[in-house]
Write a structure and sequence with these properties.
Blueprint: H1 3-20, H2 36-57, H3 59-71, H4 73-101, H5 108-119, H6 121-147, H7 151-168, H8 180-197, H9 200-221
Length: about 220
């Protein structure tokens, strides 16, 4: 199989599984019989099994990039942080403008995450700060880079897909499409960072930092 066809197939499979994996076990038993604790355990098991699956599939890249990332740690962190911070600033400013336009509203995706943090904080910390950075970066950055060889096609496709799926998964109104701006800006920043470093841990580390800060701020100020 040609490398590009292989990359499309591999990325496509994980792209689909990212959204369907937790629903597969429902075929065999009724989730309505589970209480809150049971549902959290169920979600945790689904996350861990999918994480093991995708890490196993990309293990060669992860091992190589892990060694390379720490062999030139300061330079990689500097580049990674620079592009993340640029995307973060755009995200914050655009969120503030959208909040004014939406009269205090926030993205439904963010509302759902905050609700779940209140219900199961430890699980959500794992889900947001570990599971999401690894799975999303391997699919939207590594997977897309293997498919799109052109620099700008990769960056735009990766960033727009990443941002769009974060919004469309909980789209409730046409005005909510405005949240494409902050989410896509962060996705584009991650994609550009990955292109510059060619190291998946440059984006995994910043994605982990970004999501961890969001949870910490939630607990500190309830923001």
């Amino acid at each position: 199989m040609k490398p590009r066809i292989k990359a499309i197939t591999k990325t496509g499979i994980f792209f689909i599984l990212l959204f369907l994996w937790s629903y597969i076990p429902i075929i065999f038993f009724d989730l309505n019989k589970l209480d809150i604790t049971g549902r959290v355990i169920y979600s945790l098991v689904c996350d861990i099994t999918f994480l093991i699956l995708i890490i196993s599939a990309y293990r060669k890249t992860l091992i190589k990039d892990f060694k390379d990332f720490f062999s030139d740690f300061l330079n990689n962190i500097e580049i990674s942080f620079k592009y993340w911070f640029a995307g973060f600033c755009i995200m914050i400013v655009s969120n503030l403008i959208i909040t004014v336009i939406m009269q205090g509203g926030m993205a439904t995706n963010e509302e759902q995450v905050r609700t779940l943090i209140g219900i199961a904080p430890l699980y959500m910390f794992f889900d947001v700060a570990i599971y999401a950075p690894f799975t999303e970066e391997l699919i939207f950055r590594k997977g897309f880079r293997d498919i799109f060889k052109n620099k700008w096609v990769f960056i735009i496709a990766s960033g727009l897909t990443f941002g769009t799926l974060h919004v469309l998964s909980s789209l409730t109104s046409a005005s909510a499409l405005l949240y494409l701006i902050p989410y896509c800006s962060l996705g584009i920043a991650f994609a550009y960072s990955y292109y510059k470093t060619n190291n998946i841990f440059s984006t995994i580390s910043m994605h982990m930092l970004h999501n961890s800060l969001a949870i910490i701020l939630y607990f500190i100020g309830g923001v």
